[in-house]
Amino acid sequence: MIGRFFLKMAAATSMMTPRGSGNLLAKAGGGVQVPAHERFVLDNGITLVIVPRRDVPLVAFNAVLRGGALGDPAMKPGVASLVAGLLEKGAGQRDAFAFADAVEGVGGSFSAGASAESISVRGQFLARDQQLMLELLADALLRPSFESEELETLSARHIEMIKAAKDADPSELMSLYARSFLFDDHPYGRPVIGSESSLANITQQDVLDYYAAQFGSDRLTLVFAGDVDSAWLRRMVAKLFGGWRKAATPAPRLAPAARMPGRRVLLIDSPGSVQTHFWIGNVGVDRRYSQRAALDLVNTLYGGRFTSIINTELRIKSGLSYGARSGFTRGTVPGEFAIHSFAETENTRKALELTLQTLDRLKRDGVTAEMLESARAYVLGQYPLNFETAADWAAALGEIELYGLGPEYIDNYGTALRQVDLQDTRRVIDEAFPALDSLAIVLIGDAAKIRDQVKGYGTITDMTLTQPTFEPAPQTLAAA
Amino acid sequence: MKNRFTSFFMSLGSLSGAAKAAAPAVPGRGMVREATLANGMKVIVWPVHDIPNVALYNWVRAGSRNEAPGITGLAHFFEHMMFNGTTRRQPGEFDRLMEAQGGANNAFTSDDVTVYQDWFPHGALDLVFDLESDRVANLAFVPKVIESERGVVSSERRLRVEDNNPGFLGEQVQAAAFVTHPYQFPTIGWPADIQAWQMSDLQKFFKTYYAPNNLTLVLAGDLEPERVFELARKYFEPIPRQVPPSPVSAREPEQLEERVLVVRRKAQTPLLQYAYKAPAAADARAPAVNLLLSILVDGDASRLHRSLVEEKRVAIEVGGHWQEGFDPGLLWLYLTLPEGSDPDEVRELVDAELAAIADNGVTAAELSRAKNLSSAGFWKKLATIDGKAQLLGEYEIFHGDWAKLFDAPAQFETVTREDIHAVAREILDRRRRTVGILLPEPEEEASEEAVLEDLEA
Q: Whole-angstrom distance between the N-terminal and C-terminal Cα of chain A?
């Protein structure tokens, strides 16, 4: 975090505004089409997707393992995240240093990370190094060392990085607090990166157990995009991955979480802070939500671009905040809809009131035809920028396989965007955006100065920023 | 159309082989076109037809380097004001019109430059030229809007500096590293200055620095250069040239002794930052400086990461950055330390690593790794229209000629271990550095009580 000198890159207009809320494509006639590709399922269940782009002598890969943090023990969040981090810390015949030397020595990249429902290993190598790339990937997935010393180093680092984020920009941790508060005991409520408290308790046995239960051929999708010889690649994948066992347990299944009724407030105390970060949300919709195009258009208008309704109120018109945005996290089951912004401590209530008023207006009045046309042009116009490189396609196709969406998720998107009408926008506003009286409100700031400002918003639950978990209840501290 | 993209990457294959291999030529040189308008404004175009989009960068030669005590932060404030209306268009119309035709935009300010970026479908080209030229020709100065924008910048400052320990320490280190050069000013501005600018300050700054002869426009994407030049002549050429800004004359005197500053803040993790005096961007040793930095901090196999994070475990993160500017600036190294560490002990370990490089140089494997990582990073950037527009602009502005971009890989290849050793000896000189240390405030009894109460509640 300290590596990015914010001062030097003070983004004026849209540091907080995502460029495009998803993947949208927009050539004049139809939209972005998934390029010609091949898809195979190996005997042991591995899905292999190959996207040849021979003009580019680079190969990007994306290995997606279904499971992710869903496979964490309920009381020990963070295991999947540590497992992912350890994959490149020694595998096959190489220790951690030899592995890093092998990757970086040829100018390659290789990184693994966990998310709520998967672990993804991504990287890019020059085409001439693709055999090395495959061997490193196979070692990392099939023969990770999981040495206890590396585990200790990594978990200690992760603990300290959480503390460092609290010192630098606690808003980076906001969604962890908020998801824990909103989803409670549902697996989406667990912090994917773990907490200071849970990470300290994760043992080598936890890592080995996770690996045995959650890693295996039936969980794996391999995507390669770039300058590859498809026949050669198939043979190599069969040779290197064809003998892999299946995971010891079936992939975790999820029940949807219920929307939270009523309003509740989580107040996270950061004494002396001069600003309040706030998050407002509730459970939204899932990845397969049928009205995705309308959803993206309405969210673009509400909080997905610079002139969005909330950025207009909180930044452009009032000057209260540097930025405000909103978005949907859509998983196998509904994730959250969330609004995030921040304001000077003294203006906390003013900013919250303005935000709630915009949500009220959206729910009552919806959007106009003119707004809809603008959002449609915007989303269509920004779409192609998401698919310029082989690495972009490796990422997109991995996601399509993980959620079982099929290429039509991209191919039909432009058409779907063009067909959205005002009735569709009304439907998603009713279905997916939370009711004004049912909201989780999470605040990070100087509690002594905020508490009175947020009176009347709902029952207040307190915790402190330095507390070593992302959930307020003290009993979890004791149980960990 | 695809052919151009193909040829662009053809030579990448020759990146293979050992570091000794000849650097690949960078395709595209023959496609880039440039024109200079009658008012002195330069326009550079790289047509690439792979996706139906365009990336536009408008480079303004004005940054915090062009400020003075009392008006620090002015360049950055302009970066905000440029979106707030003209005599022809209401505040907000710039964004509304651009987004309604599928375009998005952003901007950033540094010590040296302010850069405006647009990404849009090619059909919006005419509109984007209209909007970009309108704000240069007709920017409005409305008192109410200026006051509101002061609030936005103050919020940005709280986010990046006042409630942000790395940002806070970095600002202090930068201020201490220079005694006369304006590189000492924080780009976002000192708090009192943000509240103090007068309308006349704004108008003067705008007239001087937002003159067409002080701008360079770079476009990459689905474009025909002749059409771009036609639009540039239509929209920008009528804007009158101004007297060029006076050059920044300050010359930082040689730093004679190490400067150390200690900041105490509410914190869990201590911080350690080093700012070494380093050459200007156009210096001939620039490739060697970049490779040295890569050897030190780029990737898990880098010297400082491996030694301090993995082996000795005295840091949780190590990073670095060279401020490549018009004038000699700073080469930064920064470390985040685990809770409870003693920064002085870590300093000794860091210093030992740096002394080893200054004394003994680097290995052939280290240099080869750094060259391969730099090549990979360069090609990755060139794979998008945004990266192309950015790199063309950087070479034009900071190296005096966009065409030098096409020599970049060859420049990296010529660097030897001796070159690295020489720049390491010169730059990593502790007498010419400023060290910043951020320590946690001592625990107050009151706050401990508060924590206990919360747990019991």
A: 28
> Which one of B89, B268, B382 would you mutate to disrupt binding with A, by most A Cβ within 10 Å of its Cβ?
B268
CA B429 to CA A30: how far, in whole Å? 59
% of chain A beyond a pLDDT of 90: 90
How far is the first Cα of chain B from the last one, in angstroms, to the nearest whole number?
67
Q: What are phi and psi of A73, to 5 degrees?
A: -60, 140
- Facing B316 at nearest CB: one of A20, A160, A463: A160
Nearest CA of chain A to the CA of B423: how many Å? 22
Residue B218 host element (H or E): strand B215-221
The pLDDT of residue A363 is 98
> Residue A30's pLDDT is what?
40
In order of A236, A376, A423, A428, B305, the CA distances from A297 in angstroms are 43, 6, 13, 10, 44
User: Is A126 in contact with B376 (Cβ distance < 8 A)?
Assistant: yes
The A residues from 460 to 479 touching B (CB cutoff 8 Å) are 462-464, 466-467, 474, 477
Residue A328 φ/ψ, nearest 5 degrees: -105, 135
B147 touches A: beta carbon within 8 Å: yes
- CB burial of residue A85 (10 Å; 0-12, 13-18, 19+): buried
Q: Are A263 and A182 in contact (CB under 8 A)?
A: no
A320 touches chain B (CB under 8 A): yes
Note whether A120 and A113 are within 8 A (CB).
Answer: yes
Identify the closest residue of chain A to B338 by CA–CA distance: A160
How far apart are alpha carbons B391 and B378 in whole angstroms?
Answer: 9
State the Cα–Cα distance between residues A50 and A255, nearest whole angstrom: 32
CB–CB of A26 and B121 under 8 A?
yes
Task: Summarize pLDDT for B232-258 with one digit per residue, the tens.
Answer: 999 999 999 999 999 999 999 999 999
Cα-based distances in Å from B285 to A106, B252, B402: 24, 19, 18
In B, which residues are within 8 Å of A161 by CB distance? 316-317, 336
User: pLDDT confidence of B18, banded at 50, 70, 90?
Assistant: very low
Whole-complex ipTM: 0.90
The percent of residues in chain A predicted with pLDDT above 70, rounded, is 92
In whole numbers, what is the pLDDT of chain A averaged over residues?
Answer: 91
pLDDT tens across B275-311, in order? Answer: 999 999 999 999 999 999 999 999 999 999 999 999 9
pLDDT 10s digits, A89-136:
999 999 999 999 999 999 999 999 999 999 999 999 999 999 999 999
Report, as an integer, the average pLDDT of A319-323.
Answer: 92
Looking at residue A324, what is its pLDDT? 95
- Integer-rounded Cα Rg, in Å, for chain A is 23
Is some CB atom of chain A closer than 8 A to the CB atom of B387?
no
Contact A385 B53 (CB under 8 A): yes
Q: How many CB atoms lie within 10 A of CB A266?
A: 23
Check B12 against A56: CB less than 8 A apart. yes
Chain A CB within 8 Å of residue B444 CB: no
Q: Across the interface, which of B9, B266, B375 has its CB nearest the CB of A55?
A: B9
Helix A292-299, helix A369-382: angle, nearest 10: 100
Nearest chain B residue (CA) to A106 = B372
Give the pair of three-digit tokens for residue A96: 């951690």
pLDDT reading at A478 higher than 70 = no
H or E, element range at A470: none
B230 contacts chain A (CB < 8 A): no
What span, in angstroms and rounded, lies between the C-alpha atoms of A29 and A414?
9
- Percent of chain B that is helix, strand, coil (3-state, to 5): 50, 15, 35
Query: Which of A271, A319, A382 has its CB closest to that of B151?
Result: A319
CB contact under 8 A, A464 and B163: no
Residue B53 with chain A: CB contacts under 8 Å: 381, 384-385
Q: Has residue B14 got a pLDDT over 80?
A: no
